[in-house]
Amino acid sequence: MEASNGESEIFKPRNDKREYRRIVLPNSLEALIISDPETDKSAASMDVSVGYFSDPEGVEGLAHFLEHMLFYASEKYPVEDSYSKYITEHGGSTNAFTSMKHTNYYFDINTKFLEEGLDRFAQFFIKPLMSPDATIREIKAVDSENQKNLLSDIWRMDQLQKHLSSKNYPYHKFGTGTWDTLEVKPREKGLDTRLELMGFHEVNYSANIMHLVVYAKETLDEIQALVERKFTDIKNTGRSYLHFPGEPCSSEHLQKIITKLLSKE
Ranges for the Peptidase M16 N-terminal domain (predicted)? Predict the structure, then answer.
């Protein structure tokens, strides 16, 4: 049963001692909050319904690059990497990933440090600080990550499948990004990657297409109050959920055998 303010209780198994509640903030951000009085670790995850399918033409890997950049700094916490440092210094860990239609950020931390951890986390989506210096350094980090992926058969097979798919469907895109796709080619086309990055965040990181989960020791009412304080300032730009009609492969892209000839040298 759902209340008029967007709250609803969640059904759970009888042996589950945790309590659950779904809430919707005034900015239309949906959140699932979980209370577990016995836990010694708290955690949070934010899913943004935008991935590399939404990369603009000529800047392949921008969504993934933005994922990296949000970890750096914000207007409220301008010291670079202070978010990650805070999490690790208080018994936690943090990471993120970018997929076709989603970008997900998450962390865990010792329970008594959750509030500041959440405050730092929320600033990713409110006022990130994307300095020019950090932009160049993180493009290099994205490029290094791709160089590492080149040695992985799983990543190589994934990219081969994309390469063989229809060029008219976004599955064909190269979603990881490199120095070439994020710096060299955009510059050749007169594009400023940092401006593209800021515009992508402004347009796509809208509260109404975000979903938050917070797991904590406090009561549901206490967690709800905390979430409302920290995340209500995320802008709701009215972004619609993106749909990608069509298919990644037609008959011409299927039933192919791909071989590689090994050099005798």
Answer: 32-165
Which residues, in sequence order, are bridge partners of residue 41?
110
Q: Which of 60, 67, 183, 196 is catalytic?
A: 67
- Cα distances (Å, whole numbers) of residue 203 to 78, 121, 198, 209, 238: 23, 20, 9, 11, 9
Question: What average pLDDT does the segment 241-255 reach?
Answer: 78
Backbone angles phi, psi at 190, to 5 degrees: 80, 20
Looking at per-residue confidence, does 227 or 16 come out higher?
227
218 as an active site residue: the answer is: no
Beta strand 103-110 pairing with 41-48: antiparallel
Active site residue 138: yes
Give the span between the Cα atoms of 237 and 178, in whole angstroms.
29
**Number of neighbouring beta carbons within 10 Å of residue 154:** 8
Q: How confident is the model at residue 246 (pLDDT cuts 50, 70, 90)?
A: confident
The active-site residue out of 9, 75, 115, 138 is: 138
Cβ 139 vs Cβ 19: under 8 Å: no
The sheet carrying 93-98 orders its strands as 8-9, 19-24, 30-35, 210-216, 41-48, 103-110, 93-98
DSSP per residue over 76-120, as a string?
SS-STTHHHHHHHHTT-EEEEEE-SS-EEEEEEEEGGGHHHHHHH
Compute φ and ψ for 81, nearest 5 degrees. 65, 15
- Supply the pTM of this predicted model: 0.87
